[in-house]
Every structure is written in structure tokens, then in C-alpha cells.
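Preliminary data (for renewal application), nicotinamide-adenine-dinucleotide complex.
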Amino acid sequence: MSKVAIITGGGSGLGQATAVRLAEEGVNISVVDISEEGGNRTVEMVKDKGADAIFIKADVSKNEDVKNYVDETVSHFGTIDYFFNNAGISGSGKYFLDSDIDEIEKIVGINLLGALYGVRHVAEVMKKQGSGAIVNTASSAGVIGQDSVVIYSATKHGIIGLTKSMVAEYAKDGLRVNAIAPGPTETEMVRNFYKDNPEMKENAESGIPQKRLGTPEEVAELVTFLLTSKAEYINGEVIRIDGGFTNVK
Ligand code: NAD
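Predicted structure:
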């Protein structure tokens, strides 16, 4: 039987690259995104690899949308084996005391509440099945402090707490929950962020020991490894994939 994955933020960047990589392993995918255009494009890319895929439109910051993407996946595919809990946005790059409350609510709503709602509903299905693997997307900003990203960093540190504590409660029920902490990676999100803050791109590249940004395909490879049975005894880990960036800070 083919395995089934839900990928949030599946319409672009890390989510899209992971959908394609998992499809190469024969995994069927529920592509969840707020963008219909991106989500539908990913569905076509997955089908081109010979796996099945559906697009489910959702705003992950709304609990009812999250419950719906979980229910729709179960009713279409019958199960959820893998969950890449990945949708997220960056901040404005402003210093914290210059940011307004709307920005705090928006980033926390998508990056942290969205991830919590996702695990809340998906893990319920996995616990009943007695198995399932989850990868939550944190960030290098989830393992170190940096300026200009206070709100984003708070949400990504939260993702790591969610990851570790889920393991404390549900590893005994067959769940594996890990997090990835990518450094700056060439996706739409980062291209837009650096367009608005060009000096930060130069700083980032010069601060990375490998002197380049990561690629979505490199991250997809890690997520695929963590989700599939090759990583059966890895649980509660935060794996950094950042060209050495956070090791030399
Ligand atoms: P991206 O912008 O290429 O993709 C993000 C996707 O999420 C988009 O398709 C977007 O439409 C979707 N999305 C945004 N808000 C949503 C919402 N409310 N509901 C549903 N979908 C929504 O960005 P990416 O770089 O692939 O980012 C994916 C994740 O990786 C994010 O959580 C981000 O914080 C994290 N991350 C990215 C980097 C990086 O450098 N690219 C580094 C560390 C962590």
C-alpha cells in the first residue's frame, strides 16, 4: 500500500520540493496551501512522478481549515502516514520595537498556532493508527537568537518545544516527531525577504561557512529521510541544515 503524506505550505519552496521528492518514493500527497495556483502546480509535479495528489486549500492559522484538511485527507486516502508541518511566513525584518501588534498576531497565527493545530488534528489520527511520522519546520532562528527576527524566532523556538514535548507524550503510541532547522534557503520566502532587506543577504552568505544558501532539494532530502522508515529510531531531534551557520555563531 502506498504511504500518504500531508504537506502544508506545499505550493512553494521547501514544501513543493519535498512533495516531489516523496512522490519519487511512491508517496501520495495532500498538498495544503493558501495559494491555489502554487498548490495545483505541486499536484501536477507529483503526478508527473507517478504518485497521486490532491490540493486542499487552507489557511493554517484557522483551526476549522486545519481540521478540514485532515478530514479530507483521511476521507480521500484513508490514512495519514507522514506529516510535513511546514507552512510559514517570515517577518518584515524590522526591529521588534518598530513592529506593530498586527505583525505579531499574523506571524504567531500562521507559524505557531498553525503548526499546533496541525499536530493536534494529525496526531489524533496517527495515535489511533498506532503509527506516524511528523516533521515540523523550525529554522536556524529557532535554535539561536538573531536581530531583526524576534517574532519569527519566537515562533520557531516554539516549534522546537512542540516537537520535543510531543515525543514525551506520544512516542509510546508509535509517533515520531522531529524538527528541521534550515538556515537561509533559496525559496520564494527568502528571495522576497532579501529583496526588502538586501544587506541581510550579504550578511547571511558571509556568515555561512559554506558561503552559499541552501537549496530546497537539500532540505527535501532530509525531510524524506526523517519521515520514512530509514529514520525509525530518531525521535524528538532538531536537525540543523544550514551549511554550518549555527555551529560557528
Ligand atoms: P515559501 O514562501 O516558498 O513557501 C511557503 C508556502 O506556505 C507558500 O506556498 C505559501 O502560500 C504557504 N502559506 C503561507 N501562509 C499560509 C497559510 N496561512 N496557510 C497555508 N499556507 C500558507 O517559503 P519556504 O521558504 O518554503 O518556507 C517554508 C517553511 O520553511 C516556513 O515555515 C519557513 O519559516 C521555513 N524556513 C524557511 C527558510 C528559508 O530560508 N527558506 C529557513 C528556515 C525555515
